[in-house]
Write a structure and sequence with these properties.
Elements: H1 8-14, H2 27-39, H3 69-77, E1 83-88, E2 93-96, E3 102-105, E4 110-111, E5 121-129, H4 132-137, E6 149-160, E7 166-169, E8 175-178, E9 190-194, E10 201-202, E11 213-214, E12 217-218, H5 225-232, H6 237-241, E13 246-254, E14 260-267, H7 270-280, E15 286-287, E16 289-291, E17 294-306, E18 314-326, H8 329-334, E19 341-344, E20 348-355, E21 365-369, E22 374-380, E23 386-388, E24 395-398, E25 406-415, E26 418-427, E27 431-433, E28 439-441, H9 443-453
Parallel strand pairs: 21-27
Antiparallel strand pairs: 1-5, 2-3, 3-8, 4-7, 5-6, 6-7, 6-20, 8-19, 9-10, 9-20, 11-16, 12-15, 13-14, 13-17, 16-17, 17-18, 21-24, 22-23, 22-25, 25-26, 26-28
Length: 459
């Protein structure tokens, strides 16, 4: 069954410009005339059908056209399901996604909409995009407000409580994101964040460039470590009977799993030494110390002051400066630099990429016939750079790429429950009018085609 092609408005738009006095059409006029000519042709040719055309109504319009519900619904349906992880909100946690992206969460990192710290289970949703196909499915692009980005990796992260309410990272909380690769600083890679479908913004939080040591954290009680010790350390009866007072300290050795493996107590009086050795060797577990990205064994020094004549007969103190750790030279070298990691204080989309430097190269002008049922992307060949082309009345237009850039133009159309797509390869010239070669497919076939034609870039 043939559909009529509505062309009256096309003529108004594409032939409305007058030549100058020399009657020589400029480049803009050439492009418009070519588009008008192409719209007369068959816009899609499904298998087994010839001569079928799509009715297109156009008028001159400088504002992007709103996509119709059918194409918008299709774009939502092809998005991948998020990976889900459940963590304990009150403790330190680490999860690793399928592509190897690691996320580390500090204890009590999340708050609810009222600002209350969440200590119960937290559901973490994650999506990873390491290829153009994955970025296309998630409907993400690689543009800042004024420049094009090349993405090495993207991550989408959100957090929810057990009732499905979205959580925020608290003001003083941070989530560490570690991508599974290293890059050289001279490559100018940086982190970008995207909020509410806006263009990417440079993330100003500095990346982690040198490993840091973080001491073990007492996790065996809700009490602080020193408060817990105040409850379990007692003044020895023999020392009381003999009115003994004195100072002591103990080195508590904690392994990579947070377990106390030994205690060495020191005091002028044997009774205090024996008391501390007996009590401290049975301490509950700790969150282990970390050096860079690795957990390490550590030693925590605790100081005691026993004084029968004081109101507080036992004083217990610790000093962060008196925490030491064990890390091999190989471990130190392996953790020296990793530019693909940073701490984040917001959930949402994260991009690790670099700006595409075009210098003063001439920009290519690209025009593609389209309507409100169509979605158009331009993908650079060999790089993870994707531009969503604004859809005006009757055409899409982009000036984001330079002349001689190799690209693939992806068009997806959904109307009356029929799905069509077109992928064409081009080396862009100064001015380009690109006509799609449509193929009718089912939704599953569309996903398979995206995976085949936009495979993950090999590192």
């Amino acid at each position: 069954m043939r559909k009529l092609l509505l062309l009256s408005a096309v003529f108004l738009f594409f032939t409305g410009c007058r030549f100058g006095e020399n009657q020589t059409p400029d480049a803009e006029r050439v492009i418009r005339d070519t588009v008008a000519e192409n719209i007369f042709k068959n816009i899609y040719l499904p298998d087994g059908v010839t001569g079928e055309r799509i009715a297109v109504s156009v008028s001159e319009n400088d504002f992007p056209r709103v996509q119709q519900g059918d194409i918008k619904q299709l774009l939502e349906r092809i998005k991948s399901a998020p990976q889900k992880f459940i963590i304990n909100g009150s403790t330190a946690n680490e999860v690793q996604a399928k592509r190897g992206t690691t996320l580390r969460f500090q204890p009590n990192s999340f708050t609810d909409e009222s600002g209350n710290t969440v200590s119960e289970d937290v559901v973490i949703e994650v999506k990873e995009c390491y290829s153009p196909e994955e970025m296309i499915r998630e409907n993400v692009i690689t543009q800042t407000s004024d420049e094009l980005l090349e993405s090495k990796a993207m991550l989408y992260m959100r957090a929810f409580n057990d009732k499905g309410k979205e959580l925020r990272i608290k003001k003083d909380g941070k989530v560490q994101v570690i991508f599974p690769f290293k890059v050289k600083p001279r490559n100018s890679y940086a982190f970008y964040m995207q909020h509410e479908n806006a263009n990417w913004q440079l993330y100003t939080e500095p990346v982690i460039r040198e490993p840091k040591f973080y001491p073990p954290v007492f996790a065996g009680s809700r009490l602080r470590f020193t408060d817990y010790l105040q409850q379990i350390v007692t003044y020895p009866d023999y020392a009381k009977a003999n009115e003994l007072s004195g100072k002591a300290y103990a080195d508590v050795h904690i392994n990579e799993y947070g377990t106390v493996t030994g205690v060495n107590a020191y005091s002028d009086y044997l009774i205090f030494k024996e008391e501390l050795n007996g009590i401290l060797k049975n301490l509950p577990v700790f969150e282990p110390a970390t050096f860079g990205e690795h957990v390490v064994a550590s030693t925590l020094r605790v100081r005691f002051e026993f004084n029968l004549r004081s109101i507080q007969q036992i004083k217990i103190t610790t000093d962060p400066a008196e925490v030491t750790y064990t890390a091999s030279e190989a471990l130190k070298l392996s953790a020296v630099k990793n530019d693909a990691t940073a701490y984040f204080t917001n959930t949402g989309w994260i991009c690790f990429g670099k700006k595409v430097s075009n210098g003063s190269a001439k920009k290519a002008d690209v025009i593609i016939p389209a309507d409100a049922h169509t979605d158009v992307r331009i993908v650079t060949s060999g790089d993870n750079s994707i531009v969503h082309v604004p859809n005006f009345a009757g055409y899409c237009r982009s000036k984001d790429f330079t002349v001689n850039t190799s690209v693939k133009v992806l068009m997806v159309k959904c109307e009356d429950n029929k799905i069509f797509y077109s992928v064409t390869a081009h080396t862009l010239q100064s001015q380009n009018v690109i006509e799609p070669i449509w193929k009718k497919v089912e939704e599953a076939d569309l996903l398979a085609a995206l995976q085949t034609k936009f495979q993950r870039k090999k590192s």
